[in-house]
Amino acid sequence: MSAQIHFEVFSRKTPQASWVLQLATEDKETALHTADTLINSLHAAAVRVSREVFNAGTGEFHSYQVMQKGTIAPAGKPARRPVTEPVCTTPQTLYTLPARETIGRLMEDWLRRWRVTPFELLHSPVLAEKLEASGHELQHAIQKLSIPEAQETGQPVHEIIRRWTGLIERAVGRVIEDGRKRRFPEITPETVVAVVQKISGQSDRDYLLGGAVTVWLETAKGAAARLEALLALAGPLIKAGSSCDWAVRVVEIPVCEILAQKGAVADISGTGAEPGMALAALTRLLAGSEISKAAAYDPQIARVLPPVSGALQAYAVWLEVGHFSDVKRQSIRHIISELRGPRRLRPSDAVSEIELLRAMAVVLTMTGGDEAQREDLTSAFVERSRMLVSSTFIDALLQGADDGAEELERLVWLCENVVGISNKREAARWMLTALTGVKFERVMRESHRPVGQKLRQLAGLQQRISGAGLNEKDSQEAHERLGQMGAVMAQEAQVIKQIARTPQPMQRVAALLGFATGQAAPAGPLSDQARAEVMRQLKDPDVRAELSKDGTGLMALKPLLQKIGIGG
User: What global pTM score does this model have?
Assistant: First the structure.
């Protein structure tokens, strides 16, 4: 049985007050919007949104924090963890994922300079000696690690520095000594399966294989070459079956770290410096089959997310059949991080940026994943949409538009593609400003295009706004404005009277029905006039007689007649 989920919104009026439940809802967007409204209206000093998951099997609720804003803790000294809390005490703890991520963050410049990953640093005697020789950089990293820990735990900084220094010295010494003793086996794609089977029974098999993989990587230069070198090892291990699964996981670690390095995906895929193109390559890596399915009904998706080649394409093949799950998770984490970041994805082209985000949202939603991952992706796209409705982005989006009509078209398109209640509302505000402005009205009234074309354009805008997911008030306001404008333009051109003078009754009624149903002209006063004229025409015996002669034509008009409430 699937878990029942709802969202709760809490607030407190002052930093010292207790949390008070304000809302419980099954809709996450409603909860987030309520929290934002409370904090922005100054009705709360802090707000919090939590996700409550009910497990029918245990009968218990599990709470997960989704968002928290404002002054989130009462004034006073922060609580400190007990000094007795367990800490890293052995070199092996440095090989865990959290530790490797910390090493990557603290030693980022050093790792970039030597073009290596934390995994390689932890397994390479050569790199260990270089790290040992760079005393000031290592000491600086230890200080950056120790000071926050001292502030949180209350322990003296010098004691924490001494502990971390000793731990790192033991880890470095271990790698250097094992290198001198030649403990790391030599491997090639031809021998890797045999070596893995030989060491699989040893307690430190992951460490030994990690050292062997690092040695194998030393001859590969550049991110693409290193990924290909790792793939050459992973392929035979995957084909060897479940007995080598542990070894595949070891090989997968440096793959994840290489892909996570700044600029690596862009270098590998040759997509250039724009962040968005690297994200497009990652999305293609993760969702090749989903892109093919989506492109069947929207070919633009395949254009926006072009195929990858080389090493990335080879990994995409393995991902497609269920391997390299950590690479998939890491890549999605990277995509989420970039979506939440401050950088424009396509700084040179706002239109292409929206196209990219739309394509990514479609295919990444189709890739599945666990519930938490889907929620994180949704939340990230909502955060990115907040940037799309900023004044800076709007200026970029409207730059180069030919006239007020094209500006409105772009803003309606923005409304269709942003997500999140508050973002939809802000996009609608921009759209309504353009719609009610003099610029759009002038270009529609003064354009030399046939009035029929202009009326169809207004009708199309109405239909798009209806499907854009805006709130009822904004959608209704836009509909009324477009309807009024269409009625004025039609009145000036005497459109209904001209249609009523069409010699052929079938053509006359068909044209009027196009107006009455909102297909050939915007719904509103003009569609009401057209419907009234249809009723008048159908009361004319001569018209009814002519229509009855053309049974096929009359059957074609029947759906339109039913749409305006005529016929059964």
Answer: 0.76
